[in-house]
């Protein structure tokens, strides 16, 4: 799967409040730090495996562990309409 933001959805830095938000039509999500690390890598070109590899390298963690969490998060955001495959 190669995740990308759904039409009209984007990751946005809210500088006034010093936080990142996911802006969507008529709603917004405030990602936690873990989700933000993943969402910063969602560009429509990287597939799920590439995202997991980059995060495993960055945090020196087992790819299998990160992969399960990333996959679950991506599927949840797809179900909520924030991302698409």
Overall pLDDT confidence: 95
In CATH, the architecture is Orthogonal Bundle
Q: In the CATH hierarchy, what is the class?
A: Mainly Alpha
Number of domains: 1
Biggest sheet statistics: 3 strands, antiparallel
Q: List how many beta strands DSSP finds.
A: 5
| Class derived from helix and strand content | alpha+beta
Radius of gyration: 13 Å
How would you concisely characterize the structure shown here?
The protein has helices at 33-39, 48-59, 63-79; strands at 4-5, 10-14, 19-24, 27-29, 83-84. With 85 residues, it is α+β, with helices and mostly antiparallel strands.
Write the layout of secondary structure elements.
Layout: E1 4-5, E2 10-14, E3 19-24, E4 27-29, H1 33-39, H2 48-59, H3 63-79, E5 83-84
Antiparallel strand pairs: 1-5, 2-3, 3-4
Mind explaining what this structure looks like?
This protein is α+β, with helices and mostly antiparallel strands. The protein has helices spanning 33-39, 48-59, 63-79, and strands at 4-5, 10-14, 19-24, 27-29, 83-84. The protein has one domain (4-80): Coenzyme PQQ synthesis protein D (PqqD) (Arc Repressor Mutant, subunit A, Orthogonal Bundle), CATH 1.10.10.1150. It is built from three helices and five strands; from the N terminus they run E-E-E-E-H-H-H-E. The strands form two sheets. It has a three-stranded antiparallel beta sheet, with no helix packed on it. Strands 1-5 form a two-stranded antiparallel sheet. Strand 3 and strand 4 (27-29) form a beta hairpin. The longest helix is centred in the C-terminal third of the chain and has 17 residues, at 63-79. It is globular and about 35 Å long. The chain starts with a strand and ends with a strand. The mean pLDDT is 95.
